[in-house]
Amino acid sequence: MDNQPTVNTAGSVSVPPASAEKHHKYEFFKVVQGYLDEAAGVIGLPEYIQTILSQPKNEIIINFPVKMDDGTIRLFKGYRVQHNNLLGPYKGGIRYHESVSLDDVKALAAMMTWKCALMNLPLGGGKGGVKFDPNKVSREELQRITRRFFHALGSNIGPDTDIPAPDVGTDAKAMAWAMDTYMNTVGSLFRQSVKGVVTGKPVAVGGTLGREKATGQGLVYCIQEWAEERDFQLGGATLIVQGFGNVGSFTSLILSRLGASTIAVGDHTGYLYNPEGFNPHKLQDWVKKNRSIAGYPAGKSISREEFFKIKADILIPAALENQIGIEEAKNLQVKLVAEGANGPCSPEGEKILIERGIDILPDVLANAGGVTVSYYEWVQNKRSEHWTLEEVDERLEKAMQRAYREVVELARQKKCSMRVAAYAVALQRIASAYGERDIFP
C-alpha cells in the first residue's frame, strides 16, 4: 500500500503525478489486472479462477453525514471493496485522501489478496477509503468522520469477516476510534472478543509491538536479501526516498543503522538534497510535527526532476501510485528501486527500468511487512497474547526471507520479472485452494 497531502502512517506522503502520465487518466485497477493476466499465463492458471479474480466480490459505497465544528452538516463518500476471502477474512487499510476513488480502492484491494497469499497468511484482500483531505479538518471532526464511517460499515466488517487497518491519511489513533465504535455496536457481551476488528491499533488497546515500523522493516529485510544475493554492501550505500511518512522514514532510519545514507527526500511540498546525508531521526520527528519536510533546515531545495536524476544506489518510492513514469525511469541513476508504496512504477516506466538493468523489488512483496505484522496483531488478539518486539521482528524476518526466495526462484524458473513472479506465487496458493474446494453451486 497509498498525490497525498498528509503523512501516511501506513505509508507515505504525497507527490505530484508522474510527468509522463499527467494528461492521461491512470487506470490503476486495469494496471493491476494486467499483471494478474500476465502471471496467470506464466503458471497456466485455470480460466475460471482468473475470471473469479477479475473483479471484487463486493464493492460497498457509503454516503454518510457528519456534523462539523461550525454546526454545518457535510456529506462524505466512503468505500470498502472486498476483493477475495477464499483464504480468510478480507484484510486491508482505510485511506483518507481527497483523490480516493472506486478504481483505486479496487486495485488496492486486489493487491491485498496477492500480498496475503504471497505471504501465506490466512487472509484475503480488501481496501477502503473516504474521499476528503484529512489536513483540512480538525482533530474532533476527524474523529467524528472515522466513527460515522465505521458505524455506517456496520456488519460489513468484523474480526472474522473484514479487518481494516491504517493506510494513507489514517493512523493508530483512527484505528482506536474505529475499534471503540465497533465495540459499542456489538453489545456488551462481545466487547472484549472483537479487539481484532482492526489492526494497527495503539499497543495500549490491543496493538502489537513492531507494527508502526513493520512495512519499512519488511522492506529492509527484502533489500538485505537483494544485497546479499548481489554481494552489495549496504554499509556506505546511498538512497533517495520519495515520501517521508511511515514507510519512507522507517526504511531510511533502519537502513541508516546498517550504514546506508539518505541523501535526498521528497514529498508534496517539494524535494531536499543533502550529499552528506540526512539524520533520519530528526527528519522523522520534523515530519511528525509539521506533516511535511517543508522548512527542514538541513537540506538544499531541488526540483522533482532533479530528484530523479540524483546518482544513488537505491530509490525508495514511498508515496502513492504512478510516480515513476517514462521520464523518471529514463533519468534514474540507481541500482535498485524498492517499492515501499503500492504501484509507484507505471508499466511503461517499469519496462524501461528493466531494460536499463535496474532491479525492482515489487510492492506485492516488498511492502508486505505491514499486513504480515497486522496478522500477528490479529493472532495476538485472538489468543489474548502479547508478543515481544524481538519475537515479532524474528517472525517477520523469516516470513520476508521465505517469500523473497520463493519469488526469486519462480522468476528464474519462468524467466519473468520479480513482479510477475510475486503475483504467480500468490496465484498458485489461491488456485490450490479453489482446486480443493471447487465452486459452490
TrEMBL record:
<dbReference type="InterPro" id="IPR036291">
    <property type="entry name" value="NAD(P)-bd_dom_sf"/>
</dbReference>
<feature type="binding site">
    <location>
        <position position="215"/>
    </location>
    <ligand>
        <name>NAD(+)</name>
    </ligand>
</feature>
<feature type="binding site">
    <location>
        <position position="246"/>
    </location>
    <ligand>
        <name>NAD(+)</name>
    </ligand>
</feature>
<keyword id="KW-0547">Nucleotide-binding</keyword>
<dbReference type="GO" id="GO:0006538">
    <property type="term" value="P:L-glutamate catabolic process"/>
</dbReference>
<dbReference type="GO" id="GO:0004352">
    <property type="term" value="F:glutamate dehydrogenase (NAD+) activity"/>
</dbReference>
<dbReference type="InterPro" id="IPR006097">
    <property type="entry name" value="Glu/Leu/Phe/Val/Trp_DH_dimer"/>
</dbReference>
<dbReference type="InterPro" id="IPR046346">
    <property type="entry name" value="Aminoacid_DH-like_N_sf"/>
</dbReference>
<dbReference type="Pfam" id="PF00208">
    <property type="entry name" value="ELFV_dehydrog"/>
</dbReference>
<dbReference type="InterPro" id="IPR033524">
    <property type="entry name" value="Glu/Leu/Phe/Val_DH_AS"/>
</dbReference>
<keyword id="KW-0520">NAD</keyword>
<feature type="active site" description="Proton donor">
    <location>
        <position position="127"/>
    </location>
</feature>
<feature type="domain" description="Glutamate/phenylalanine/leucine/valine/L-tryptophan dehydrogenase C-terminal">
    <location>
        <begin position="208"/>
        <end position="438"/>
    </location>
</feature>
<feature type="site" description="Important for catalysis">
    <location>
        <position position="167"/>
    </location>
</feature>
<keyword id="KW-0560">Oxidoreductase</keyword>
<dbReference type="Pfam" id="PF02812">
    <property type="entry name" value="ELFV_dehydrog_N"/>
</dbReference>
<dbReference type="InterPro" id="IPR014362">
    <property type="entry name" value="Glu_DH"/>
</dbReference>
<dbReference type="GO" id="GO:0000166">
    <property type="term" value="F:nucleotide binding"/>
</dbReference>
<dbReference type="InterPro" id="IPR033922">
    <property type="entry name" value="NAD_bind_Glu_DH"/>
</dbReference>
<dbReference type="InterPro" id="IPR006095">
    <property type="entry name" value="Glu/Leu/Phe/Val/Trp_DH"/>
</dbReference>
<protein>
    <recommendedName>
        <fullName>Glutamate dehydrogenase</fullName>
    </recommendedName>
</protein>
<feature type="binding site">
    <location>
        <position position="91"/>
    </location>
    <ligand>
        <name>substrate</name>
    </ligand>
</feature>
<feature type="binding site">
    <location>
        <position position="115"/>
    </location>
    <ligand>
        <name>substrate</name>
    </ligand>
</feature>
<feature type="binding site">
    <location>
        <position position="374"/>
    </location>
    <ligand>
        <name>substrate</name>
    </ligand>
</feature>
<dbReference type="InterPro" id="IPR006096">
    <property type="entry name" value="Glu/Leu/Phe/Val/Trp_DH_C"/>
</dbReference>
<comment type="similarity">
    <text>Belongs to the Glu/Leu/Phe/Val dehydrogenases family.</text>
</comment>
